[in-house]
Amino acid sequence: MSFIDDIRTAFSRRDNALNQLLLINALVFVALILFGAVMFVSTGSSNHGIVLEWIAVPSEPMRLLTRPWTLLTYSFTHIAFFHILFNLLNLYWFGSLVREYLGDRKLVSIYVLGALAGVVLYLLAFNLLPVFKGQPSVLYGASASVVAIIVAAATLLPDYTFSIILIGPVKIKYIAAVVVLVSVASLDRGNAGGEIAHLGGALLGFLYIKQLQAGRDLGTPVQVVGDWVGGLLSGRPRLRVTHRGGSAPAPKKGTMPKPEQNDIDTILDKISRSGYESLSKDEKQKLFRASQK
């Protein structure tokens, strides 16, 4: 099977959102590297600025109105190797946790909403705060989306532990806290726009999980648009099925039945014996639904 076939297969699966996000970031990075190499050979300069002008978010609102697609394209754009390396590693580690517990659709929702929240805070800061006014800038990178996923995972499972080299097991709530503090401390280090976007993503990740636990899915609009776009690309119309005669009332959209107390007690006993990591995906989802108000 060719490389193109592998890519096509990866995007044809509906349960492969994490790998698709990773792959899109990697493909855009490779395309930018190849473009820079061609431009350097031709002109003596990589000229990445020409591309960034059209796929990165400008700080000037009027320019942004002429490039609305950058609200999404910026979150898949990297130029520096270590920038994309750390973003993709964190996306894989924390995204795997969110995907396992909440599923593909909510993972994509957090990624997209984190990117949008990062843009909103970035634009507000660069157009309202005196320290940034008059400093044209562009925003690019998946960091806001990745930080949203990190904070969402930490809000969802604060005591889940990752083993870090030279440090050992660390609860992810502390990892998320360090990520946020580093962004705050780095505001005066030359990448203020990126750090501000990180904070927007962090706020979104926290609010998303809190609202989800309260029974409200902030990502519903993202999922609706995604379904619509997916239908256009696949060429398959969405069918509505109508049942005649009596039937049980349908559950409210976005809700799932609460698990029985006996099931929860069994799951809690399993955690006490073997730890949280021993739970199956179904058991983790039941525990999450039970925590919703």
TrEMBL record:
<comment type="similarity">
    <text>Belongs to the peptidase S54 family.</text>
</comment>
<keyword id="KW-0472">Membrane</keyword>
<keyword id="KW-0378">Hydrolase</keyword>
<feature type="transmembrane region" description="Helical">
    <location>
        <begin position="138"/>
        <end position="157"/>
    </location>
</feature>
<keyword id="KW-0645">Protease</keyword>
<dbReference type="Pfam" id="PF20216">
    <property type="entry name" value="DUF6576"/>
</dbReference>
<dbReference type="InterPro" id="IPR035952">
    <property type="entry name" value="Rhomboid-like_sf"/>
</dbReference>
<protein>
    <submittedName>
        <fullName>Rhomboid family intramembrane serine protease</fullName>
    </submittedName>
</protein>
<feature type="region of interest" description="Disordered">
    <location>
        <begin position="239"/>
        <end position="263"/>
    </location>
</feature>
<feature type="transmembrane region" description="Helical">
    <location>
        <begin position="107"/>
        <end position="126"/>
    </location>
</feature>
<dbReference type="GO" id="GO:0004252">
    <property type="term" value="F:serine-type endopeptidase activity"/>
</dbReference>
<keyword id="KW-0812">Transmembrane</keyword>
<dbReference type="GO" id="GO:0016020">
    <property type="term" value="C:membrane"/>
</dbReference>
<feature type="domain" description="DUF6576">
    <location>
        <begin position="260"/>
        <end position="293"/>
    </location>
</feature>
<dbReference type="InterPro" id="IPR046483">
    <property type="entry name" value="DUF6576"/>
</dbReference>
<dbReference type="Pfam" id="PF01694">
    <property type="entry name" value="Rhomboid"/>
</dbReference>
<feature type="domain" description="Peptidase S54 rhomboid">
    <location>
        <begin position="67"/>
        <end position="209"/>
    </location>
</feature>
<dbReference type="InterPro" id="IPR022764">
    <property type="entry name" value="Peptidase_S54_rhomboid_dom"/>
</dbReference>
<dbReference type="InterPro" id="IPR050925">
    <property type="entry name" value="Rhomboid_protease_S54"/>
</dbReference>
<keyword id="KW-1133">Transmembrane helix</keyword>
<feature type="transmembrane region" description="Helical">
    <location>
        <begin position="21"/>
        <end position="42"/>
    </location>
</feature>
<dbReference type="GO" id="GO:0006508">
    <property type="term" value="P:proteolysis"/>
</dbReference>
<feature type="transmembrane region" description="Helical">
    <location>
        <begin position="71"/>
        <end position="95"/>
    </location>
</feature>
